[in-house]
Amino acid sequence: MPAKPPIRHFVTFGRALRAAGLEVGPRRIADAICALEAVNLAQQEDVYWALRTTLVSRFEELEIFDSAFAAWFLRVAVRPVLRPVPTVPPPYGRLGRTPAPAGGTEVDGGEREVGSYSTEELLRHKDFSKMTREEFEQTRRWIAAAAITRPRRRSRRLRADRRGRSLHLRGLVRASLASGGDPIRCAYRGPAYKPRKLVLILDVSGSMEAYSRALLLFLHATLSSGRGVETFVFGTHLTRLTAELATRDPETALSAAALKVNDWSGGTRIGDSLKAYNDEWGRRALTRGSVTVIMSDGLERGDDKPVDREMARLARQAFAVVWVNPLKGDPRYEATAAGMRAALPHVDRLIAGHNVASLERLATVLEGISRRHAA
Amino acid sequence: MTQGNRTVPASIEEMAAALDATGYISDRGLSTALFISLTIRKPLLLEGEAGVGKTEAAKAVARILQAPLIRLQCYEGLDIAHAVYEWNYTRQLLHIRAAQDGDVDEAELFGPKFLIRRPLLEAISSPDAPVLLIDEIDRADEEFEAFLLEVLSDFQVTIPELGTVTATTRPYVILTSNRTRELHDALKRRCLFHWIGHPTLEREIEIVSRHVPEAAAGLAAQAAAVVAGLRGSDLAKPPGVAETIDWTQALVALGRRELDIDTVEDTLGAVLKYREDVEAVRDQTLAELVAQARAG
Fold first, then answer.
1. Rounded CA separation A50/A34 (Å)
2. Which residue range is the domain that position B182 belongs to?
């Protein structure tokens, strides 16, 4: 067996990797040292592969590992391998002005006093863009409540169900033990249901500014409805926000999201953003079988051909495509924007999403989607 | 638990040579990963685009160790009854009927005789260490992943009616994933990790010639070059090595010894599986790639 590797050196290397964002625990370090004992330490290539196999656990980490390895063992001058941390929060509109968390009227665990039924109802139908901050604060929990419902899919598994259609053999065997092998009472099984994958893609460009905060809250609340939800936002390019929005507290989540996205309230490139989604996530089969919700006003700055092409790609893979367009809140709205016109043929359902009532409508639609492309 | 060791190649070089002998052409990185995984007895997670030879690598390892390969193909909705065990209900019912007077020994009824072993249980209860291939783990549900985590850390499963079955030998475990979703960190912590990228041109030519020995020498090289070029184009689904092999076989079946643009267009379906991709390269890119491949 080769000589014991200079353990200290590798442990420090592991720590450097951890500082750079890799999840390198004691167990991985121990594995790395075992692995190094098995390879020839004089062979730089073997040391590289031994460390890479044991210390890296995902594709995204390979690049960080490579530059750290180069800096550590090959003494190559590289830029620091620290995770890029934005120093200045990017400026953006409405989202940045985080309102004070709670008004003075709220008591511990209690609910803020809201108006009578009719004012509440009025608020539910009030356009987000016309709300005052206080009004918006009141709607927050309605938005969160609406986002809890999820589309469902049939699980491959069957569960015991008296009204089921197929025989529950396990139950039957159990029951017939009591009657000496005569299956007197039949047991049945019926389908079980599970939440279906849900992908939400939100447009946060300038023209959507008045709605993006409310819709972002919707995204955040959907994530807490369980597994299988992915969230993305786009302006000129696509950003995945699932990890950032997964925090329980909405304000923390929105701030984390604000840091991650750097094209708030800028231009819109729907086609390119959808292409980025299809290439990176659709190819990894995220779309397949999912209900995909796109929230955008469809005001595409660029060419509308890519929108048509990418929406077609998306629609072929998704179980159903729902488009939420706040402009549709206006009864006189017609899909004249080039991007929206290009997307419409591939959309199963077009919903407004400009007020609480329409988000509740969205929830009902999502819950009811049971057949492919029959939103 | 005994280790149930099989003869494992003693060095990376031996590993590479052994892989080569089974017909699997590996690179230094993959040989090292497999070698370390077998040596320190830790599951290896192989990730990579579809068609880069993840499953084949596991099969090659089984051949090298001369161990049986037990494969668990994952899919959405995979459950314990299909992954671990199930009772043979039909047989149980017949048995109860045959006993007539109601004297059925429940311990016998839920005994090994009526147990159907599925891959995980089979891998654990096998007397000689097998190679356990858990294929496309990313397609299974997350609950199943959590269950798998238990199996991989303790190498035991519990059957309520029978008790806990602990592994007599520890299987060599290889997991593959197409990265359709991120796997759980806890599962990754149990595994070594290796990313299999698309092979270099030289290696791909070697792989293709090995799989399609009847192909003319130039044909394999040209096909590999065109596929490598296609991977560089902006495609929805870049072709893998498996596609290169299929395509070369198709070309051989057509009796071609060299690529020409007409044949390429006719057989493109073996390489590109999306209409958009076919249309995207058909006019310009393809002609250029074929010309380059013929010149190169």
1. 9
2. 12-85+116-196
Mean per-residue pLDDT, A95-111: 40
- Tell whether B32 is covered by a domain: yes
Q: Is the ipTM of this complex over 0.95?
A: no
Nearest CA in chain A to B235: A279
| Nearest CA-CA distance, residue A112 and chain B, Å | 38
Which CATH class, in words, describes the domain spanning A196-368?
A: alpha beta
Nearest to A45 among B28, B35, B39 (CB): B28
Residue A324 contacts by C-beta under 8 Å, 6 or more apart in sequence? A215, A293, A294, A295, A296, A351, A352, A353, A362
Instruction: Name the pLDDT band for A116 (thresholds 50, 70, 90).
Output: low
Q: What are phi and psi of A285, to 5 degrees?
A: 65, 25
CB B195 within 8 A of CB B50: no
Instruction: With a cut of 50, list the residues of chain B below it in pLDDT.
Output: 1-2
Close Cβ partners of B261 (under 8 Å, ≥ 6 residues apart): B286, B287, B290
B206 and B192 within one domain: no
What is this structure's pTM? 0.67
Give how far Cα B240 sits from Cα of B178, B198, B270, B277, Å: 12, 7, 11, 14
CA-nearest of A232, A47, A213, A199 to A128 is A213
Q: B171 with B242, same domain? A: no
pLDDT, tens digit, for every residue of B190-248?
A: 899 999 999 999 999 999 999 999 998 889 999 999 999 999 888 888 899 999 999 99
Provide the token pair at A346: 């591939």
In this structure, the number of other CB atoms found within 10 A of the CB of residue A339 comes to 27
pLDDT tens profile A122-158: 888 888 888 888 888 888 888 888 887 778 777 767 7
Using alpha carbons only, give the angle A245, A247, A250 rounded to the nearest 5 degrees: 75
- What is the Cα–Cα distance from A212 to A236, expressed in whole angstroms? 15
Residue A85 has pLDDT above 90, yes or no: no
Under 8 Å between Cβ of B278 and B268: yes
- Answer yes or no: do A173 and B92 touch at CB < 8 A: yes
Chain A residues in contact with B93 by the CB 8 A cut-off are 169, 172-173, 176, 181, 183
B1 found inside a domain: no
From the list B181, B192, B276, the residue facing A54 with the nearest CB is B192
* Count of beta carbons in the 10 Å neighbourhood of residue A320: 23
For an interface test with A, give the residue of B32, B113, B141 to mutate (most A CBs within 10 A): B32
> Which tokens sit at B260?
């020409």
| pLDDT value, residue A4 | 56
Cβ contacts of A54 on chain B, cutoff 8 Å: 36, 192
What pairs with residue A238 in β-bridges?
A: A234
Give B19→chain A minimum CA distance, Å: 17
Q: B158, B177, B196: which is the final residue of a domain?
A: B196
Count structural domains, chain B. Answer: 2
Average pLDDT over residues A56-69: 86
Token representation of residue B55: 């499953």
Domain limits, chain A: 7-73, 157-194, 196-368
